[in-house]
Amino acid sequence: GRIIGKPESAEHAEQILGELSGRAHQVLTAIAVADAETVEHQLCVSQVRFRTLDAAEIRRYIATGEPMDKAGAYAIQGRAGMLITEIHGSYSGTMGLPLYETSMLLAKFGYRF
Predict the structure, then answer these.
(1) Cα distance between residue 98 and residue 102, in whole Å
(2) Which of 7, 59, 69, 86 could pair with 49 as two cysteines, CB 3.0-4.6 Å apart?
(3) Does the structure show a pLDDT above 90 at 66?
(4) DSSP track, 19-83
(5) In whole angstroms, what is the distance from residue 112 CA to residue 104 CA?
(6) What does the alpha-carbon distance between residue 8 and residue 99 come to, in Å, rounded to a whole number?
(7) Burial 80-97 (b: 16+ CB within 10 A, else e)
(8) Using an 8 Å Cβ cutoff, are 33 and 96 in contact?
(9) Radius of gyration of the chain (CA)
């Protein structure tokens, strides 16, 4: 029920990861494509579940520096991939840009890969 941004400190990252431990959360990524006449947009919603993490694991992960500039204090494409038990939705959307949804919006404007 709240937005989790980038951690402000190592202590904040520890708090965030402790809250995500053993739980599922949603990652929402909005995208839009526009031209002079039209705007098309889509919201990509993915669910990510972390395994239960102990305090030492969380501290070791934070010590890598990886979570410090990432929303939710983790990078699914990095070391945090080992902490995640399931993902339902868009892997690329969890990283940042939902590629499938982006390609579908671009196709509406005549761009195809």
Answers:
(1) 6
(2) 86
(3) yes
(4) HHTT-EEEEEEEEEEE-SS-EEEEEEEEEEEEPP--HHHHHHHHHTSGGGGSGGG--TTTGGGGG
(5) 9
(6) 28
(7) beebeeebebbebbbbee
(8) no
(9) 16
Mean pLDDT of the residues in the chain: 96
Residue 1 has pLDDT above 90, yes or no: no
Q: What are the pLDDT digits (tens) for 9-58?
A: 999 999 999 999 999 999 999 999 999 999 999 999 999 999 999 999 99
C-alpha triplet 53, 1, 81: angle, nearest 5°: 35
